[in-house]
Structure formats: structure tokens, C-alpha cells
């Protein structure tokens, strides 16, 4: 109540608006468009057309098509259909006028073209069933072409990201060596150049790869998911906060940074493995679901039965990954349990985003009186296209990860080994400087003075090496590379957000192990020669 009173006073004193309310609304709209609408438009438009083509088999009228489609708020594209429906029902527009006016506000070229084609088809007297059937095939081809172009761009930008990041790391290494040689006064300003270069490369590469392909979520992210997803949600509520507190304390206490990275990798490893297993299971279930839904639709349409007898008649032996879920549904339906809750449990346990979307389309179309065999064919064909495209993306992502992890290990290793070599050289030179200064005092004239000056000047190059500042610089660079490569791996591979745990565990473990072994290996293989009797 007190907060509401404060907000009311602020609105009263600011012409009825909160301070920065318009700015906040504008920023929110831009972020929503960038991260949600632009990313999900392609796949959601395919879902929407599949839904419309499915319900048209029930001989739905045009007002019913617009009403039912506009009510599907989970698709970002349906809000424009909902606006057209409101213009018709509340303001008396014709469907042609409503679609034409709505199209003027659409920025997505794919949806803009589809809405205008729909308006032209209505104006030309083309039946909705004919238009939607053809339009669904058009959108499938357009979505497939867009997705494949995005995959090719993702592949090229993935290679470019690795090349640019490696080049940025080399620049950072050159800067580190230059500081060791010349010891400039403004070290932090010089190091900031390296931070900016690597940060800029990381941001440009990650954002470009993120924008390359349409959104393709694997998990439905409902409150209840597959057993693996439920386990991750229970574990991460405890593991992640505890890990954050432990890491913060260890860093404040000055614990070895490599051990901290290894700890992060070990604690996140169980979450990452579970997420990886769940991702693989969803891939296998999604590959079988088009066959399942097409078979159920064919049996229902051919025999005129309900869905339970149709499930009994399909060949479940060929659906080895879906069979446990199908048997559970069949048992519950035979016991007379609520059908909606039974199928919701099927969706939850499956954990798949595509199964969640397409099963609801199938069941909604049948509830409206759609033809089961036709609806099953429509739904399975749309989902099969997305499954095949996802398989193509998986091939690209595996190649990228095969290159990313060794590249990350190489960059971190070069930084660490070179840093420790410089430290060994600086320590050895600092230790011998006193001896050379004494020897130089004895050699006061002639050729001896020239020799002493030359030797002392050459060794002075590394005598002012700031180990602490450069050591902190190496830690920051390793952290930037680790975070960037974790995000790059997740974006390229797709899948659920929980896969971040897997990539974080993998890359942090590699970085931590190299951080621990680098000084040991350097001490074994890199020795400064000692010249006795000089």
C-alpha cells in the first residue's frame, strides 16, 4: 500500500506517468522484438499455419478461424491475427481491410507477406481451406530455406568467431610480452586495450551467431518436465547458490584461481551430464513423434475410433523411446482418467517443445471436429521438417564444439605458459642483478665497463616485470575467454538453457586444469642457464 501511494504521487507530479516510464516501455519493446519476436517468428508462424490448416478440416468458418487462432497467445505471430479479428468484430471492418491495416504494422517480412496474401485470397474469393493448405506448404518451404540459410551463416560465423577470438588472444599475448620488455608507465591502460579487443570480438561473434538461426527450443519449460528436467530444477536451486557463495569466498581468500575453476567444473558436472542426457532423450523422442501422431490419426480416421483404441492398434515396438510414455497414456485412458490431464502428463514427461506444440494442435483440431487422418498428416509433416532441420544443426554444432574446446585450451595454455616463462625469467634476472651490479663495479674502465654495461642493460629488460598486475591480467583474460566460449557453445548447439551447465563444467575444467599444471610444467622444462665464474 505504501509503495502504491508513492507511485501515485510520482504519477501526479509527473503528468500521470512514472519517471522514465516511456523510456522503459521503449527499451522493453525493443528487447522483446530482438530476443523474442524476431527469433520466434519463423517457427511460430509455422505452428500458426499448421494450426489453421488443421482446424479448417473441421469446416471451421472464417470467424472461427480468426477467433481460435487469435486465442493462441503462445505464438508471437497470432497477436496480429487477434488484432484483425478485433477490427472485424468491434469496428466493422471487412477481413480484407482488417488484414491490410494490420499488415502495415508488421516488420517481419515473412508474416507481412503471408497476411497480405491472405487478404488478396479473401478478396479474390479463394476458399480459406484452399488458401491455408497451400500457404502451409509455402511457409514450410520458406521456413526451411530461412533455417538452412541461418545454419550456413552460423557455420561461417562459428569459424570466423574462432579465428577472430584466437587473433584477439594473440594480440593479448603480444601486449603481455611488450609490457614485460618495455615496462610502460601506464600498464593498466595498455592492458585495457586487450580487454576491449577480446570483449568486442566476443560480443560481435555471439550476437551474430544468436541472430543467425530462428529460435528452436527443445524443452517446453513448463513447471513440470521430464524426470531429468525435474531433477535439474531441484538440484540447481541448491547447487548454484551454494557454488556462487563458495566461489566468492575462495576468491576473496586468495585461493588459486585454477582450483576455483576446477571446483566450478566439478560441482556443475552432475547438472551438465543430466542436461546432456535429457537433450539426447528429447532428440530421440522428437524423431519418433511424427510417426506416432500420423499413425494415431490414420487409425482414428480409418476406424472412426477415439484416441485410446487407436493407440492400442499402432505398432509401439517401432517407437522404443516413446513406448513408455505411450503405454502410460493408454493405461490412464483405459482407467477412465481425465483425458486432458492424461495428455498433459504425457507432455510433461516427454519434456519436448515440439511434442507440446504439435500434440495440442492435433487435439484441438479433433475437438473442433477435424478429420483425424488429415490432421495427423498435417501435424506430422510440419514437425518432421523441423526435426530434420534440427538434425542438420546438430551436425554443425558438433563440428563447432570439436574445434572450440581444443582452441580454448590452446589459447589458455599459450597465455599461461608464456606468463610463467616470463615470471621465471624475471625472477632469475632479478636474482642475478645484484651479482652483475657488483661485477660491474669492479669493471670500471675499458672493455670491462662496456661488457658490464651491455650485460646489465640486456638483463634490465625483464627486471621491472610486474608479476602481480600481469597475473591478474591473465586471470581476467581467461575468465573472458571462458565465459565467451561457454555462451558460444550454447548458442550454436541450441537446446535447453540447462546445457549451459554442461559447457561451463567442460570449459572451466579445461581452464582450471591448465592453470594448475602450467607452472609445474614450466618449472620442469624451462630452466634459466646459470653462468658460473662471470
TrEMBL record:
Annotated transmembrane regions: 161-183, 195-213, 239-255, 400-422, 470-488, 500-528
Presence of the UniProt keyword Transmembrane helix in the record: yes
InterPro entries registered for this protein in UniProt: ArlJ-like (IPR056569)
Alphabetized UniProt keyword annotations: Membrane, Transmembrane, Transmembrane helix
Taxonomy, superkingdom: Archaea
Annotated PANTHER family: FLAGELLA ACCESSORY PROTEIN J, INTEGRAL MEMBRANE PROTEIN-RELATED
Protein's name according to its UniProt entry: Archaellar assembly protein FlaJ
Organism: Methanospirillum purgamenti
Gene from which the chain derives: flaJ
Amino acid at each position: 500500500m505504501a509503495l502504491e501511494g508513492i507511485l501515485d504521487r510520482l504519477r501526479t507530479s509527473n503528468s500521470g506517468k512514472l519517471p522514465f516510464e516511456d523510456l522503459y516501455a521503449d527499451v522493453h519493446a525493443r528487447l522483446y522484438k530482438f530476443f523474442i519476436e524476431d527469433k520466434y517468428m519463423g517457427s511460430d508462424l509455422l505452428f500458426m499455419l499448421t494450426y489453421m490448416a488443421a482446424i479448417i478440416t473441421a469446416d471451421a468458418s472464417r470467424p472461427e478461424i480468426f477467433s481460435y487462432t487469435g486465442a493462441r497467445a503462445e505464438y508471437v505471430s497470432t497477436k496480429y491475427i487477434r488484432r484483425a479479428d478485433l477490427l472485424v468484430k468491434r469496428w466493422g471492418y471487412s477481413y480484407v481491410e482488417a488484414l491490410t491495416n494490420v499488415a502495415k504494422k508488421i516488420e517481419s517480412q515473412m508474416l507481412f507477406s503471408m497476411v497480405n496474401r491472405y487478404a488478396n485470397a479473401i478478396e479474390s474469393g479463394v476458399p480459406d481451406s484452399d488458401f491455408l493448405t497451400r500457404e502451409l506448404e509455402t511457409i514450410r518451404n520458406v521456413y526451411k530455406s530461412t533455417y538452412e540459410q541461418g545454419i550456413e551463416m552460423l557455420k561461417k560465423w562459428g569459424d570466423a568467431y574462432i579465428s577472430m577470438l584466437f587473433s584477439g588472444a594473440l594480440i593479448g599475448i603480444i601486449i603481455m610480452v611488450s609490457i614485460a620488455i618495455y615496462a610502460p608507465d601506464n600498464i593498466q591502460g595498455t592492458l585495457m586495450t586487450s580487454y576491449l579487443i577480446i570483449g568486442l570480438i566476443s560480443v560481435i561473434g555471439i550476437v551474430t551467431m544468436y541472430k543467425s538461426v530462428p529460435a528452436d527450443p527443445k524443452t517446453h519449460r513448463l513447471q513440470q518436465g521430464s524426470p531429468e528436467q525435474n531433477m535439474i530444477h531441484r538440484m540447481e536451486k541448491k547447487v548454484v547458490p551454494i557454488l556462487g557463495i563458495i566461489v566468492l569466498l575462495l576468491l576473496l581468500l586468495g585461493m588459486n584461481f585454477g582450483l576455483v575453476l576446477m571446483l566450478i567444473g566439478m560441482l556443475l558436472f552432475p547438472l551438465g551430464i543430466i542436461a546432456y542426457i535429457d537433450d539426447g532423450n528429447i532428440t530421440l523422442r522428437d524423431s519418433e513423434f511424427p510417426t506416432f501422431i500420423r499413425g494415431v490419426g490414420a487409425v482414428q480416421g480409418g476406424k472412426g475410433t477415439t484416441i485410446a483404441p487407436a493407440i492400442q492398434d499402432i505398432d509401439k515396438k517401432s517407437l522404443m523411446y516413446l513406448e513408455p510414455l505411450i503405454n502410460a497414456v493408454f493405461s490412464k485412458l483405459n482407467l477412465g482418467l481425465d483425458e486432458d490431464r492424461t495428455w498433459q502428463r504425457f507432455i510433461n514427461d516427454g519434456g519436448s517443445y515440439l511434442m507440446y506444440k504439435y500434440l495440442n494442435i492435433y487435439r484441438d483440431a479433433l475437438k473442433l471436429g477435424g478429420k483425424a487422418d488429415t490432421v495427423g498428416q498435417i501435424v506430422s509433416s510440419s514437425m518432421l521438417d523441423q526435426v530434420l532441420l534440427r538434425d542438420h544443426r546438430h551436425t554443425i554444432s558438433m563440428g563447432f564444439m570439436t574445434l572450440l574446446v581444443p582452441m580454448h585450451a590452446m589459447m589458455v595454455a599459450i597465455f599461461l605458459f608464456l606468463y610463467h616463462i616470463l615470471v621465471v625469467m624475471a625472477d632469475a634476472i632479478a636474482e642475478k642483478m645484484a651479482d652483475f651490479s657488483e661485477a660491474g663495479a669492479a669493471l670500471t674502465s675499458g672493455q670491462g665497463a662496456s661488457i658490464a654495461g651491455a650485460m646489465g642493460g640486456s638483463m634490465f629488460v625483464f627486471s621491472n616485470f610486474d608479476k602481480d598486475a600481469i597475473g591478474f591480467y591473465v586471470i581476467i583474460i581467461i575468465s573472458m575467454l571462458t565465459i565467451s566460449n561457454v555462451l558460444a557453445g550454447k548458442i550454436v548447439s541450441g537446446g535447453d538453457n540447462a546445457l549451459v551447465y554442461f559447457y561451463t563444467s567442460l570449459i572451466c575444467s579445461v581452464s582450471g586444469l591448465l592453470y594448475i599444471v602450467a607452472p609445474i610444467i614450466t618449472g620442469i622444462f624451462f630452466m634459466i642457464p646459470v653462468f658460473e665464474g662471470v
